[in-house]
Design goal:
By secondary structure, this protein is an all-alpha fold. It has one domain. 86% of the residues lie in helices and 0% in strands. It contains six helices and no strands. Helix 2 packs across helix 4. The model has no long low-confidence stretch (mean pLDDT 87).
Amino acid sequence: MTTAVAAQTKQRPWWLTLITGVLALVVGSILLWGGFVNKVETYMLLVQILGIWWLVQGIFDIVAIFVDHSMWGWKLFMGIVSIAAGTYILSYPIVSAVALPKIFVLVMGIWGLMYGVILLIMAFSGGGWGAGILGVLGIIFGIALTVNYADPGMGLAMLWTAAVLGVIGGIAMIVQAFRQRSA
């Protein structure tokens, strides 16, 4: 019998981290510095991959009900929503490509509002000034995004931010993969 301290956690294989890092770096680079046609083609490919992923994830969520009956209602709900979203994206890729950045901005705004309120509650429950300040900033961030989510510039800013994070994250993952390999 092994204890929790003695049990070693399995690490992700270094080569999988390397492949993920290279893909993130390539996609981020194309979205940042590629020509217009390359940017559009890459973005459309990402939209189609998202549609396929949601469709498959929805099927897996529903199949999971038969394996594990806990929270079957949520699994069924999420499965149906994922299948509907994936099918819509694959059926209408251009409309989805235009709408996704706006939807992402709206979701980030709602998340910021909820996160800010939760942090404020924590601050008033003894969480300290740090939680209170972050809560106020989260609420301001959330309001700014939800009020302006339909502005095309907000969606483009999110795409640009994702591209920058892809480049930075890709480089970090490549470095991590080689560190992991040498360890």
